[in-house]
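Quick one before lunch.
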Amino acid sequence: MSTRVITFGTFDVFHVGHVNILTRAHDLGDHLTVGISTDELNHAKKGRYPVYRQEHRSQIVASLDCVDAVFYEHSLEAKREYLLEHRADVLVMGQDWEGRFDEFRDVVEVVYLPRTADISTTDIIHEIKNRLED
Ligand code: CTP
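Model of the cytidine-5'-triphosphate complex:
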């Protein structure tokens, strides 16, 4: 039987930390589905809209060899429904989410992977801003 892996994220201003988590998630199974947070969900969660709109973020992620399917994550509260709908066996999240998804261990195996050091979308945006101000 094939193992279906699922992960979630914004994947805005796509960077190498995103590549690393997606390739490692892919390596944990046979099929990788990625839930891309919608622009509205991001605004509600982080207080700002992503730089890249959701259609572009999902197109970038879907273009990767390690990704088999993408969908929009509209609500944080619907996580369990998404896991069931996409028939996930393994839920992969970065260690910044450690412990936060343990409640789903009754339906999936939950794996937290270490983040790639020293890179994030927020840092990249700040770096660009700083360069423009110099
Ligand atoms: N991620 C990672 N290593 C990084 C950055 C992100 O493994 N250096 C992982 C996160 O743990 C998450 C996924 O990539 O599972 C998507 O994260 P996302 O929040 O979209 O990226 P960030 O760069 O963390 O964005 P932000 O700075 O806006 O929080």
